[in-house]
Design brief:
Distance between the termini of chain A: 80 Å
Oligomer: heterodimer
Shape of chain B: globular
Strand order of the largest sheet of chain B: 2-1-3-4
Radius of gyration of chain B: 14 Å
Order of helices and strands of chain A: HHHE
Structural class of chain B: alpha+beta
Radius of gyration of chain A: 24 Å
Order of helices and strands of chain B: EHEHHEEHHHH
Number of strands of chain B: 4
Chain lengths: 136, 124
């Protein structure tokens, strides 16, 4: 078996395993987070979580597939290990960036659901308040 | 901000429709709706220019901060549960001129808008 074939056979399963591991981490921990964000609405949290994780898998597995190709010929075990390390390194960094992007999306969703304590515009003036009328 | 008072013009049909809409919205803070220029409004805010509040929508919070025109619209929207995110978006630097133009347009056309409200809410 050629060195490059061994590299491929290691690269594909390891990359997929990393993607699944990170995806499952995201799914498990993102779920609790989203339940909190959606005020205990578990169905909504499930739905949004699933949609996000499917996108995560598609982008990462697509990236793993596109990253498979190796330029040039390699015959030594050393060259094979180096190519494999380079490939897995890019996949790890790519998955990591996607993971942080997902965390950013989660925090954006959360920020939109948590009410700011002050209104978004500045007042024009101030006036004396004698009493606060009863609310409608 | 812990409470908000919106001063609406009771002589304007559109304003009364908007008042009823706001009254029916679930709110994040207590919102009181008081007729602009009324004795009640003058008693609550003795130093406010009450004649000015008839021509322009005015909102006052519990600390005495006064919001006028588009800022009053945005503050009232922000006080609702369902539309506070919209208020925040419309208050961003690029969207604020749009909110201002919309507020001015509503102010100019509030007579015609009254008929529109009546068509959809016959009870108003």
């Amino acid at each position: 078996m050629s060195v490059i074939l061994v590299t491929y056979l290691l690269y594909v399963p390891v990359s997929i395993a990393i993607t699944i591991w990170v995806g499952r981490t995201l799914y498990r921990n993102g779920y609790r987070f989203l339940v909190d964000v959606f005020g205990g609405d578990e169905e909504m949290a499930h739905s949004v979580n699933h949609l996000l994780v499917v996108g995560f898998y598609l982008i990462n597995l697509g990236y793993v597939a596109l990253n498979l190709r190796v330029e040039g010929e390699y015959y030594t075990a050393r060259a094979g290990v180096e190519v494999l390390a380079g490939k897995l390194g890019t996949v790890l960094v790519g998955v990591g960036l996607m993971h942080f992007f997902n965390l950013y999306v989660f925090s954006r969703i959360r920020a939109r659901h948590i009410a700011p304590p002050i209104p978004p515009v500045r007042p024009d003036a101030r006036t004396r308040v004698n009493a606060q009328p009863a609310a409608a | 901000m812990r409470a908000l008072t919106v001063l609406y013009d009771p002589s304007c049909e559109f304003c009364r429709g908007a008042r009823d809409w706001l009254a029916a919205q679930p709110k994040r803070i207590p919102v009181a709706l008081v007729a602009a220029g009324s004795a009640e409004a003058r008693a609550l805010y003795p130093e406010l220019d009450h004649d000015g509040t008839l021509g322009q929508l005015t909102a006052v919070d519990d600390a005495g901060n006064v919001y006028r025109e588009e800022k009053a619209w945005l503050t009232a929207l922000w006080a609702t549960r369902e539309h506070h995110a919209l208020a925040s978006r419309l208050s961003s630097a690029p969207m604020l001129p749009v909110a201002r133009a919309a507020s001015e347009w509503i102010g100019r056309n509030r007579g015609d808008l009254g008929g529109l409200i009546r068509r959809f809410h016959p009870a108003v």
